[in-house]
Amino acid sequence: MDETRGADGTAEAPETRPKGTRRRGAALVGAIHAAAVEETAARGLEGATMEGIARRAGTAKTSLYRRWEAPEDIVLEALHAAYPMEEPTPAADDLRGDLVRALRLMRDSFDTRPKYAQALMAVLVASWARPDLHERLYREVFDPRGERFTKRALLHYADKGVVDRERVTDVVADIGEAMVFKHMLDTMQPPDDAYLDMIVDQAILPAVGIDPRTLS
């Protein structure tokens, strides 16, 4: 029996799928995406293989090569497909709420999906030594899904005339994500709702010229 080893060199149980279930189309692609995330979380991007992804997905390796050339291609597509994207209120009548919800989406999406978070971090770390991968990660994953958490909401409200568009700079758009990551580095825990509220009230809203006390 083939043996798969993780990034730390320890043996992993081979992934199997019950026989008799033939998947096609979206169902098969979804299974392959999930397998690519699991493979990358366990072995890192450099250790991920087409064989490992196929084994975890319970499909033939030839199914992968019909659509993708390399594990990296599957992993980036899988990260894009599952990357959370904020959806601000269409009427643009709850700026504070939309900003808070964007930060909660960021926290909860990664906190409740550890394998996805591990795979994303593995790709991000690998990209630091590979400018081509770094460019692909942003072009294919982050940018199409809104670039940064809270930026989509801020631009939406700027388009509606609620926020001054000139105040929505890259620095301001970075505030929410940066403070969430800083909190996690300092405490090794995701921020609670009260802390996310403070990020919005004490940092993001003032940065765009809005006093949170004036919001209903």
UniProtKB/TrEMBL annotation:
Residues 49-68 bind DNA. Residues 26-86 form the HTH tetR-type domain. Residues 1-24 are annotated as: Disordered. Keywords: DNA-binding, Transcription, Transcription regulation. Gene3D superfamilies: Homeodomain-like, Tetracycline Repressor, domain 2. The keyword Protease does not apply. PROSITE patterns: HTH_TETR_2. The keyword Signal does not apply. This is TetR/AcrR family transcriptional regulator.
